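Supplementary Note 3. Input sequence used for the single-chain structure prediction.
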Amino acid sequence: MPKTNSSEIISRICGDLSAGKRTAAAQIARAEFPWARKLLAKRSYSRLVATQIFCRDGFIDRYFGSRLIYPGALLLLGHLLPNEFPMHPTWKVSESHEIYWELWPAVDHMVPLSRGGSGDADNLVSTSTLHNNAKGHWLPEELGWKLYPPGNINEWDGLLSWFIKYADQNQGVLEKTIIRSWHQAAKRIE
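The predicted structure, written as discrete structure tokens, is reproduced below.
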């Protein structure tokens, strides 16, 4: 029987357990709801790699088609207008503006590492931090999500060019380490 209704499988397992049929319950679990420990690939990518993925995807949330903004640009915005776009050092939700979840791009593994996915570029897509957190270890199709095509970086660059130009013309903002690190990544792909 294919795993189409997870709750039904668990219900049958519980029924067998209640009837004292632990072996039968275990057999159902192994046959219809198998679990195997996965060796995880290490999730690690630099700001440069993240910037490359964001540019490749045209700063588009590949699951919803909405525009995203380069992290350096959002950080710079928060630095220049801290009262309008507050950000907490540890991203405390109640003390940070919602743009950091809605518009901040994240690199997502379409097939999560916990499900045997790889860290290869063809398994990585741009999405918002909000959607990345919501997706968790699920596959996009399990959530009813589809994959949008990449955007055109020449039509929308996520304010990357604005960020580079502003930082180049106002070098003082680069004293802030986090802004400088995103600037360095941006300049390497420019």
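The helical segments are 6-18, 22-32, 47-56, 71-80, 99-102, 129-135, 160-169, 177-189. The mean pLDDT is 90.
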